[in-house]
């Protein structure tokens, strides 16, 4: 006997490979109504998130409330903004891999400088 396969997976693969899929899909959409804009947006959201890193998403989509940490690449909505956005760091750990406390304090300049902790959610 062959190793067991999940019949749903075999079905799914065969549907996916079928030459008739396009045709049947369009027929169903006509009978059942179109795909909702919400479903399409959700699909696009999942797709671009899967294939892009946070920094690319922020740049390409001109996002307002999120930045990518220049060290670890994680998304952040608050953190260190260095020299008016030349770099962003999500935490003191990430910050101090690039700038010492003293270097940061010089840039911060007691709030008068171009580097500071901020939130982009406001
Ligand atoms: Zn980080």
Mean pLDDT across residues: 93
Can you count the helices?
Answer: 6
Give the termini distance in whole angstroms.
62 Å
Count of extended strands: 5
Run of helices and strands: HHHHEEEEHHE
Amount of helix = 40-55%
Structure description:
The chain is an alpha+beta fold. Helix content is 47%, strand content 13%. The chain has helices at 7-17, 21-32, 37-51, 54-60, 92-95, 101-108; strands at 67-68, 75-76, 78-82, 87-89, 116-119. The strands form two sheets. A three-stranded antiparallel beta sheet has the order 4-3-5. Zinc ion is lined by residues 69, 71-72, 74, 89-91, 94.
List its salient traits.
122 residues; alpha+beta; 6 helices; binds zinc ion
Question: Secondary-structure blueprint of this entry?
Answer:
Elements lengths: L6 H11 L3 H12 L4 H15 L2 H7 L6 E2 L6 E2 L1 E5 L4 E3 L2 H4 L5 H8 L7 E4 L3
Antiparallel strand pairs: 1-2, 3-4, 3-5
The structure holds zinc ion (ZN).
